[in-house]
């Protein structure tokens, strides 16, 4: 018996889907038959209005999340799948971290994934089926310069993923996290703008290269589909073996 990475007929919400890995995952879900609501501050320009639609929203205003969750459900119905791909990295050194930067990072990277999931879980529970995919990071287990606030939130995502799995998996809702390595996105722009640094990162992987956007598609579809029926509370490092060395 084989189980395909099938999301046909599912409704998905992907945050941070106007660019980068979020956009790549959202487009892959559409290509595999899902209907997708893209949520980001900047309205995604790739949505066609039929299988995909864009919602411009500031998720960092936590008080608005219940209303945003209601708006997410309007085009295609309540989501079966939530991919929390939105994130921010202020890249402030430890001695330069500001309260504003710390709070903004905490809100978007850690608080939003929980409270948005909390708002969408009741509808998933009625179907006895749901998928929540959080975004961890290499910094969930490695310390990088200028990453103290970002790393703290991504370490938190690992435990949040476990706790969400413990809370909701008996309702058929599997909760897992992807931890990407170095991919060329807006968030990693400062890394890839330094050719020597990008080359060093590639050399540290087991496969000898940095990630390409399509490398995230297979792991994301696995976590979003029935293929992950017995997988929950897990973190998958999609990093070419960077953390294996």
UniProtKB/TrEMBL annotation:
<dbReference type="InterPro" id="IPR020904">
    <property type="entry name" value="Sc_DH/Rdtase_CS"/>
</dbReference>
<protein>
    <submittedName>
        <fullName>Gluconate 5-dehydrogenase</fullName>
    </submittedName>
</protein>
<dbReference type="GO" id="GO:0016616">
    <property type="term" value="F:oxidoreductase activity, acting on the CH-OH group of donors, NAD or NADP as acceptor"/>
</dbReference>
<dbReference type="InterPro" id="IPR002347">
    <property type="entry name" value="SDR_fam"/>
</dbReference>
<dbReference type="GO" id="GO:0030497">
    <property type="term" value="P:fatty acid elongation"/>
</dbReference>
<dbReference type="InterPro" id="IPR036291">
    <property type="entry name" value="NAD(P)-bd_dom_sf"/>
</dbReference>
<comment type="similarity">
    <text>Belongs to the short-chain dehydrogenases/reductases (SDR) family.</text>
</comment>
<dbReference type="Pfam" id="PF13561">
    <property type="entry name" value="adh_short_C2"/>
</dbReference>
